[in-house]
Structure to design on (401 residues):
């Protein structure tokens, strides 16, 4: 991205907005003044949630997800897109709806973490979030192992 | 009855009308020699559900609209007024006083920038002829033979995405840093999250900062989304142990 050197002042004025639950968890459980011996509240479940939020990047499954996401892209400027062939391969190898399901799962998870459009999500208590994000992960690994199994047979 | 502690402010603070905290309990102050703790009564074993977490944050966000307040981490509950005065206000008086005057007239504003998956990956491929070629070559190989090659391809895409995110993140930080007193970089929560930074901004500089964030949101609109949070109490800029910061 190139930054334009000249910007009309006042053209884009962004107003900050109040924090969602995900934002709140990120700051108030980690930042702020602490007098250790008086931390008394039970944080069971919440620690798990914050650990779960760290997506592990360095795994074959994650790399395959990046590859799948790239393969889905329709690059209009590029006449030699291999997209249709590849989509055929994926469908034949038995993943079918599962592949897009896994990718949707990743997106769901990202929007949960950043709370961009999650007003409904906010109504649920933290444990629900955790359950839904781990199921997204499960879905993604099961879909890629299914792809592999089918390929071996 | 124990008290849940929200933060520390000056004893002459003016509380908003009907300020309610955890379990809808009214928020009051416990003051000692110029300092005041913002508190509300709470049960012996307070819980940390959504309602309590949000209530803690909302009390502090309401206070920071007009007052300087040092936020406590969630979960501080003290058994009675005497212990609260002694172990918080008296024991840490010099440092709390210093922090209150240093942070006077400032707020925390948090900027999170997140790439949209498809748009960011499209940018990666469009900027790298080699990766684009790799993708199209793999598309013609049968799936059973391409498994590891796909993983390799994905790994290279991930690395390029990280490089692009690093560059864009630094550029955004470089545009905002001159407008704040200090900034604190938070954890990036996904491969698509390229900036998650808290900025300490003077109240009178807020409009300028709002404009700068608006400009950034526009500039990066093609690949990502900017979330702009605040005003928050200075969560990332209160430390009982640290020395005086450079900006003070």
């Amino acid at each position: 991205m190139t930054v334009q050197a000249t910007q009309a002042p006042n053209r884009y004025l962004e107003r900050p907005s109040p924090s969602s639950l995900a934002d709140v968890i990120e700051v108030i459980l980690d930042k702020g003044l602490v007098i250790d011996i008086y931390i008394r509240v039970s944080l069971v479940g919440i620690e798990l949630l914050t650990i779960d939020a760290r997506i592990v990047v360095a795994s074959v499954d994650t790399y395959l997800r990046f590859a799948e996401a790239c393969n889905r892209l329709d690059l209009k400027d590029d006449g030699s897109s291999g997209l249709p062939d590849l989509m055929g391969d994926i469908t034949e190898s038995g993943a079918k709806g599962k592949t897009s399901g896994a990718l949707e799962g990743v997106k769901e998870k990202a929007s949960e973490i950043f709370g961009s459009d999650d007003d409904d999500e906010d109504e649920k208590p933290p444990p629900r979030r955790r359950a839904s994000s781990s199921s997204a992960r499960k879905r993604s690994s099961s879909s890629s192992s299914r792809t592999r199994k089918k390929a071996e047979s | 009855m124990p008290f849940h502690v929200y933060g520390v402010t000056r004893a002459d603070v003016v509380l908003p009308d009907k300020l309610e905290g955890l379990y809808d309990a009214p928020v009051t102050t416990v003051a000692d020699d110029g300092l005041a703790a913002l508190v509300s009564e709470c049960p012996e074993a307070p819980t940390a559900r959504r309602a309590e977490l949000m209530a803690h944050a909302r009390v502090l966000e309401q206070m920071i609209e007009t007052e300087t307040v040092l936020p406590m981490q969630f979960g501080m509950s003290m058994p009675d007024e005497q212990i609260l005065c002694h172990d918080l206000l008296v024991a840490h008086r010099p440092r709390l006083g210093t922090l209150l005057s240093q942070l006077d007239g400032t707020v925390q504003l948090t900027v999170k920038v997140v790439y949209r998956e498809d748009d960011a990956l499209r940018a990666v491929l469009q900027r790298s002829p080699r990766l684009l070629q790799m993708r199209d070559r793999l598309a013609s190989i049968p799936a059973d033979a391409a498994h590891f090659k796909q993983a390799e391809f994905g790994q290279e895409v991930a690395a390029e995405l990280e490089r692009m995110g690093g560059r864009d993140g630094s550029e955004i930080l470089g545009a905002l840093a001159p407008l704040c007193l200090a900034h604190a970089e938070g954890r990036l929560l996904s491969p698509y999250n390229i900036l998650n930074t808290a900025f300490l901004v003077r109240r009178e500089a807020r409009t300028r900062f709002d404009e700068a964030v608006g400009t950034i949101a526009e500039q990066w609109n093609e690949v990502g989304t900017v979330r702009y949070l605040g005003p928050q109490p200075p969560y990332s800029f209160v430390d009982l142990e640290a020395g005086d910061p450079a900006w003070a």
Notes: The beta strands of chain B are 3-10, 28-32, 35-41, 70-71, 77-78, 106-115, 182-185, 193-202, 224-232. Residues 143-176 of chain B form the longest helix (34 residues). Residues 3-104 of chain B form one domain. Chain B has seven helices and nine strands.
